[in-house]
Design brief:
Elements (H helix, E strand, L loop, with lengths): L9 H5 L5 H5 L2 E5 L4 E6 L13 H19 L5 E12 L7 E11 L3 E9 L5 E13 L1
Antiparallel strand pairs: 1-2, 2-4, 3-6, 4-5, 5-6
């Protein structure tokens, strides 16, 4: 059973042109029944001076996926969601290729949501685990 109020994220993603997701090359690649999946390149836009994936870029991927998921769960005519808190544990370094993030809700309440985001490398090894708390705001 699907958790999504908005089943087609294309309209929402179109609104994201020209922002942080576009700047870092983040793409949404899958919307499952209870998760949203995206990918981000590990390149000059997302690495630190030592050539490793920047932890901040991982947090941007995590918050972008969780925030998009949060907003797809609510009726846009009545609500919108904004981030309250994000944390991340960086587990493994990545130097090239892509990382994939999967965001799934842990809690979908009337006023708040909590999302878990797991980021893996192309070999499906965990790179980062993150938790995002979202506020559900009335328009």
């Amino acid at each position: 059973m699907s958790i999504w109020f908005q089943k087609d994220c294309e309209d929402f993603v179109k609104q994201l042109k020209g922002n942080m997701m576009a700047h870092l090359g983040i793409e949404i690649i899958e919307l499952g029944d209870d998760y949203i999946k995206g990918k981000m390149p590990v390149d000059h836009r997302t690495t630190q001076p030592a050539g490793l994936l920047h932890g901040g870029a991982s947090v941007v991927l995590a918050e972008s996926l969780g925030s998009l998921g949060a907003n797809l769960v609510v009726d846009w005519n009545q609500y919108y969601c904004v981030g309250l808190s994000v944390n991340a544990n960086h587990l493994r370094s990545v130097r090239s290729g892509f990382v994939m993030g999967v965001a799934q809700p842990l809690h979908l309440g009337k006023r708040s949501q909590v999302w878990s985001i797991e980021i893996t490398d192309e070999e499906e090894k965990r790179v980062c685990v993150s938790r995002l708390t979202m506020a559900v705001m009335t328009k």
